[in-house]
Amino acid sequence: MPPILYFFALCNLVIGSGAFVLGGILQPLSTSLGISVAAAGQAMTAYALATALLAPMLIVLTAKWPRRRAIQLALGLFTAGCVACALAPNLTMLLLGRVLMGAGAMFTALVSALAVSMVPPALRGRALSITFLGMSVSYAVGIPIGAWLGFEYGWRVPVWLSAGASLAAMISVHWLVPGNLASAGAGFAGFRAAASQAAVLRIWLRTLLYFVAIFSVFAYIGPVLQALNPMSSTELSVTLGLFGLAGVAGTLSGGWANDRFGSLRCLRVQLSVLTLMMLLLPLTVGHPLLSLSTMMIWGVAGFGMMSPQQSRLASLSPTQAPLLLSLNGSMLYLGTALGSIVRGSLLSQVGFANLGWVGLPFGILALLTLAFDRNLVPSKAHAAA
After folding, report:
1. Which of 145, 241, 263, 332 is deepest in the core (most CB within 10 A)?
2. Residue 34 region, left (φ>0) first, then alpha (ψ -120 to 50), else beta?
3. Cα separation of 28 and 155, whole Å?
């Protein structure tokens, strides 16, 4: 595998940690700013909407740039957003900072397209799993450590650490990413034909639906875990860390399984397991080990879907991969935002412990979209089907 993929993974570790650490420390954040936990949760929504709307626009605007410049822009925006959040005296400035961070999340689509362009089709799943590995490691390391720091020393501490790490990554790009690395293609030429394919539209819809399902729970993961089984800040950090380790296992196994069995078979198994775990999670209240086991299986299935989804999308139109992947990211974050809206409207009726059932119908709908898909190529060819 190209060594640069491991640097991309490290950058995704920084982005994942900075983007989602607030989900575990909403309570100290809300106390510090004098707002409700529900209002503090809008920081996740602001990030999601900014990524969904701004990242594709930036992908197009930087289509002709050398990739090093585009990557530096992305990390620069993310760094600036982290600094604004760390300095925020109120909710308004916090949300503005999160918007900048969301724009900087264009990084993930940029490097995903580069990853699939650097390897033969038979290795796309593994290349993507390496690139996304940093995102899953952030749940195992960055988010739990950030949550512990946030509870022990204040919520601004992990945000400042994210800013410093992002700045270091941006500076490192100058030496680690070749200056002549050209765009894999992200303009509008041919995009309309690629985007009008039914298979492409189903992938985007599936991403939207299963992220509505996931983030009906995960945006409030700290309060959800506390509602299921009250725990100390250290116990919460350990639980989040174990969930993240399950995500690492899911990311790596998902890439391998995609190249071995084909994306369609993988997605059927992974979405079925994810949906089942959403059904079971509220039933584990008062049983810490059952809650942890359910969350870890959830992590393996949820993170495992990323490589098959992305690989399948890139294989449908390789020349349009950057923009298609960015718009898939938009569906991801629109799903995150819609999950927030659905969750917020029902939270007072169902409570934190039962949020898994709020997202369950969307998981079922995502699973049903697979009924219309067919293998792109025979799985024995080990192409990214």
Report:
1. 263
2. left
3. 6
* Residue 233 DSSP symbol: H
The amino acid sitting at 252 is L
Closest CA to 343 of 26, 45, 90: 45
- Provide the token pair at 314: 């890139």
CB-CB contact of 129 with 1 (8 Å): no
**CA–CA gap between residue 195 and residue 64 (Å, rounded):** 20
The answer to whether residues 56 and 110 touch, using CB atoms and an 8 Å cutoff, is no
Would you state the structure tokens that stand for residue 295, as one six-digit string?
């969350």
How far is the C-alpha of 345 from the C-alpha of 359, rounded, in Å? 12
pLDDT score, position 281: 93
**Is residue 165 within a helix (H) or strand (E), and if so which, with residue range?**
helix 156-176
The whole-angstrom separation of Cα 120 and Cα 47 is 34
Long-range contacts of 200-204 (CB under 8 A, 24+ apart): 200/313, 200/316, 200/317, 200/324, 202/369, 202/372, 202/373, 203/309, 203/312, 203/313, 203/316, 203/328, 204/327, 204/328, 204/331
CATH code: domain of residue 246: 1.20.1250.20
Q: For residues 302 and 305, give the distance between their C-alpha atoms in angstroms, rounded to a whole number.
A: 6
Q: How far apart are CA 165 and CA 167, in angstroms?
A: 5
pLDDT tens digits, one per residue of 355-364 = 889 889 999 9
**CB-count burial class (<10 Å; 0-12, 13-18, 19+) for 249:** middle
Q: Range of 114's domain?
A: 4-381
Say what the pTM is.
Answer: 0.77
Q: How many CA atoms lie within 13 A of 123 on its CB side?
A: 11
Domain count within the chain: 1
Proportion of the chain in helix, strand, coil states, percent, rounded to 5 = 85, 0, 15
pLDDT in tens, 103-151: 999 998 888 888 878 888 778 888 888 998 888 788 778 878 888 899 8
